[in-house]
Amino acid sequence: AQSVTQLDSQVPVFEEAPVELRCNYSSSVSVYLFWYVQYPNQGLQLLLKYLSGSTLVKGINGFEAEFNKSQTSFHLRKPSVHISDTAEYFCAVSLSGGGNKLTFGTGTQLKVEL
Amino acid sequence: GAGVSQSPSNKVTEKGKDVELRCDPISGHTALYWYRQSLGQGLEFLIYFQGNSAPDKSGLPSDRFSAERTGGSVSTLTIQRTQQEDSAVYLCASSLASGRAINEQYFGPGTRLTVT
């Protein structure tokens, strides 16, 4: 079975600083990788996804992530964060041919401070 | 256009009662998913519908949980004899046909269920 680990439950960062949110996965088969964001009292919104091809994936709101197969990681990065990026971020995987059902990590709360 | 909608937004029920949660997917989306978000377990997959195929129920935690999807559109998640551990936010998502293509899942705002 596949699993996703987000080691950092909370990440505080000052506005305009860079940030990296870590995600590691385990699976015995090929996976697709996703990052979702959840703003307070809202549903989940897709930030970016890796299906195949280039390992560097760019998403919305200036976020990007890099798929590293050897390290089984898919870390999310942004070079300069804004107050409005304060939210919870979830890494997720789905199995190739698995009907797209997602397995989520436990989430990382990003808090951007002035 | 309209996104995924869920009702009610909040539901408080007494232990032992049955509850029904509703999901209206985006028009034209043939795949529908239910997930549960709770403090202890994070975000968990519950059940998945794809067109007329048999649903994937592999994530349902017990036989008290069931779901239907009528007419390939609206879905209802039913929890019988609710327990306090059922308290969570229940999220619904829909997407275009799944299978070989990976299509984005669009999530609704969720139903917050509190069992007292």
Quaternary state reads heterodimer
Give the structural class of chain B.
mainly beta
Radius of gyration of chain A: 14 Å
Strands of chain B, count: 10
**Mean pLDDT figure of chain A:** 92
The DSSP helix count of chain A reads 0
Largest sheet of chain A: 6 strands, mixed
Distance between the termini of chain B: 37 Å
Unreliable parts of chain A: none
Tally of individual helices of chain B: 0
Pattern of helices and strands of chain A: EEEEEEEEEEEE
Distance between the termini of chain A: 41 Å
Q: What is the average per-residue confidence, as pLDDT of chain B, rounded to a whole number? A: 91
Rg of chain B (CA only) = 14 Å
The percentage of residues in β strands of chain A lies in over 45%
Number of strands of chain A: 12
Most residues in contact, chain pair and counts: A-B, 23 and 26 residues
Task: Please outline the helices and strands.
The complex is a heterodimer of chains A (114) and B (116).
Chain A: E1 3-5, E2 10-14, E3 19-21, E4 24-26, E5 31-38, E6 44-50, E7 56-58, E8 64-68, E9 73-78, E10 87-95, E11 103-104, E12 108-113
Parallel strand pairs in A: 2-12
Antiparallel strand pairs in A: 1-4, 3-9, 5-6, 5-10, 7-8, 8-9, 10-11, 10-12
Chain B: E1 5-7, E2 10-13, E3 19-24, E4 31-38, E5 42-50, E6 65-69, E7 75-79, E8 88-95, E9 106-107, E10 111-115
Mind explaining what this structure looks like?
The complex is a heterodimer of chains A (114) and B (116). Chain A is 0% helix and 53% strand. Chain A has no helices and 12 strands. Chain A starts with a strand and ends with a strand. The mean pLDDT of chain A is 92. In chain B, the strands form 2 sheets. In chain B, strands 2, 4, 5, 8, 9 and 10 form a 6-stranded mixed beta sheet that branches. With 116 residues, chain B is an all-beta fold. Chain B is globular, with a radius of gyration of 14 Å.
Index terms:
heterodimer; A: 114 residues; mainly beta; 6-stranded mixed β-sheet; 4-stranded antiparallel β-sheet; 12 strands; 0% helix; 53% strand; B: 116 residues; 10 strands; globular
